[in-house]
Amino acid sequence: MGVLSFDSRATGVAARKFVRSGATMSGVIVSMRRTLLSCTSLARNGLLGGALAALLPAAPAEAADLVDTLSIMLDFNRQELAVLATALALLGFSVVAAILLMRTRVRTANNEARLRARIGELQLQSDRFGALLFAEPQILISWPAGDNRAQISGDISMVLPRDSSPQRVLAFGTWLPPEPALQMDHAVDALRDRGDGFQLTLTTAHGHTLEAIGRAIGGQAIVRIRELSGLRRDLAETNLRYKALADETEMLRGFAAAAPWPIWAKAENGALSYANPAYVRATEASSVTDAQQRKLELLDSADRTAMERGLKDAASFTSRLPIVIGGERRIYDVRAVNVGSGKVGVAIDASEADGLSSALVRMAEAHRRTLDQLSSGVAVFDGHRRLAFYNDSYRRLWDFDRIFLDANPDDSSVLDQLRAARKLPEQPDFRAWKAKLHEAYRAVETAKDTWYLPDGRALSVVTTPNPEGGVTYLFDDVTESLELARRFDGMIRVQRETLDSLAEGVAVFGSNGRAQLFNPAFVRMWKLSSDAMRDEPHIQTVEGWCHQLFDDPVVWRQIREAVTSIESRADVPLKLERKDGSVLDGMIRPLHDGATMLTFQDITDTENVERALRERNEALEAADQMKVDFVHHVSYELRSPLTTIIGFAHFLSDPSTGPLTPKQAEYLDYVTKSTNALLALTNNILDLATIDAGAMKLELGPVDVSKAIELAAEGIQDRLATDRIRLKVEIAPDIGSFVGDEKRVVQVLYNLLANAVGFSPQDSTVGISARRTERSVVFTVTDSGPGIPADMKDKVFNWFESRSQGSRHRGAGLGLSLVRSFVELHGGKVRVDSIVGRGTVVICDFPTDQAAHRDAAE
């Protein structure tokens, strides 16, 4: 049985191989017959089971052959028949299984053939679609669902170089400008995330026009990119334009319907073709059709005529017109344009804007007038850097021509003109300086600067950026302010240094009673500590420190009250005699800021000197009074004998007394001249003494200038003749007269002439002139004498000051003293101009004002 089982397996394997070899049914029967024959011999040999296992059931058509085969088997004995039956059963099963396997194989082969045919058809169709798809340059990008890896096919050379990696197509920024690249990124993201399709027209960085279409197909996101050219591009552009035009038309219609302003359109014949609801409401129509049928107009006939004329001449019309809507008259900005063969118009309510504009104009004019009154120069430049406004101070500051400024020059032109006129600060790099200045147009904060001009002026410049664009410049001439500040700083430093160098002690206490300022002299004078004073001690604290030198409570209370009081602020002099024997002269002086200044000066030495001087002055005054009294007394005592001598001399010279010998007459003449001179000297001394005593009184009256000069000249005629001196008189024609003491005026002129003749050499000229000024009569006496040295000019008017200076002049030296005294009594002045070797000029001014005489007399 073991052998039988092995052979049956071998027979089954052979049968299956036979079936796989594709043999026909008749071949199978022949083979089975051969197998049975083999099985007979095998059965005889005990191996029939293995042979029968290889047999297959016969087909009905070949049953006869199977019977013949079975009849051969009848020759076996029963035992062999039992084995044969078992083999036949196995053979039947194997045949059935082989037949089923063969049928399955046949069906599989048929299905495989049909599948290969279908695959061929699909491959052909795929090749045909691929050829059709890539017949033109294009790129396909697909993303399977749930996969971030993109599959790219097609001609990438249309966007990238041929040697580039296909994945670089996904970097849209490498071949698209920034804005289209961003648009493409957003569209692809929407397609992959939500399946939103898109269609875009793109322009590459090289100027090529591409169409990008994105769709979600079969669970994949697919993007197709191809170049638009020719008819397709024109069609795409036309579609886009049509869609854009339709969208724009719909948008404009929606906008017009929602707009609150009346909007209308008219056909070529002038009929209303479109009107928005605002137009319908404005014309009080029930609908657009009603407005068209009733031919309702928004504007009156005159305004419509003007609009038609404007549209005919300029193809557009703009005007601000009054329109009555709902019984109310309002201002509208009406704008109309020619569109195709028709006209379109809109009326925008500008009532509020018109009112605001008028108010703004009035406000601007008021601001302009206000700014013109400012001392600061103001210039406003607009966003285009052109001059929009300037005030008169700005024009005067830079000395601009109005024509130039009214032409609205730009900022650079203004600066260039100022630079050409050397009115801007000198700059090593003018362009850089100007660029920095113009940064104000982009700034957000105000900037300040100071310009130091070549002409010495200093300008404070404030640049303020305007919210609406542009810059406002403010120019202030701070030359005087800076100069005052510089002077003030210098003055403060000088005052500080002066205060520190003063021998006088100074301390300033504030309104709070604390020391604010002090100098070293104050510290030394009261033996204080500088460090302690810098701590701003209170006046009471300072008082406690100073008690060791001066402890008078009354004086310190007076100082405290002066420092801390609010009322009765007045200067308070102080004189302190301290314990150490020193004497201080002090002053409490309130200051304007509420502070109080204390000053102390050590006058100990001055006090001692003052006492000595006072005693000396009293002695000198007593001696001077004694001198005046002596002179006055002696003069009176001399006048009596002189009068007697003069009287007897005149009596002796009278012929009635008898003849005199020539010698007697000569001696008598000497006596007469000497007594006359002595009498004149005595009278002069008496006059001077009277003037010093304040007892001289002028007999005022009209003084004839010509007559006074004539009387004075008569008194020196004999001396002029003796010394052969010529007198030159010059009197202005309009000299007239003035108010004065004629006797004293003649005396003044006589003394001046006598003094000039006395100092003039023989055969010379002495001059006297008189002229009138606005307030005085001026007498001038000149000589050609030796002149007066500089060290003598201040002494020529002193008593008994007489020097001949090499001339023939002799005298007591009282003439010029009397001249000055009499002129000053009249309220006038005397001055002397002299050059050594060239003569002397004496000028006397007699005032014509009556008040001057009264003041001089007083």
From TrEMBL:
Listed SMART domains: HATPase_c (SM00387), HisKA (SM00388), PAS (SM00091)
InterPro entries listed in its UniProt record: HATPase_C_sf, HATPase_dom, His_kinase_dom, HisK_dim/P_dom, HisK_dim/P_sf, PAS, PAS-like_dom_sf, Sig_transdc_His_kin-like_C
GO molecular function: kinase activity
The UniProt record lists the keyword Hydrolase: no
Xref: PROSITE patterns: HIS_KIN (PS50109)
CDD domains, alphabetized: HATPase, HisKA
Keywords noted in UniProt: Kinase, Membrane, Phosphoprotein, Transferase, Transmembrane, Transmembrane helix
Ranges for domain Histidine kinase: 633-850
Gene3D superfamilies linked to this entry: 1.10.287.130, Histidine kinase-like ATPase, C-terminal domain, PAS domain
Transmembrane regions listed in the UniProt entry: 82-102
Annotated Pfam families: HATPase_c (PF02518), HisKA (PF00512), PAS_7 (PF12860)
Statement: the UniProt record of this protein carries the keyword Transmembrane: yes
Reactions catalysed according to its record: ATP + protein L-histidine = ADP + protein N-phospho-L-histidine
EC number: 2.7.13.3
Stated name of the protein: histidine kinase
Annotated organism of origin: Bradyrhizobium japonicum
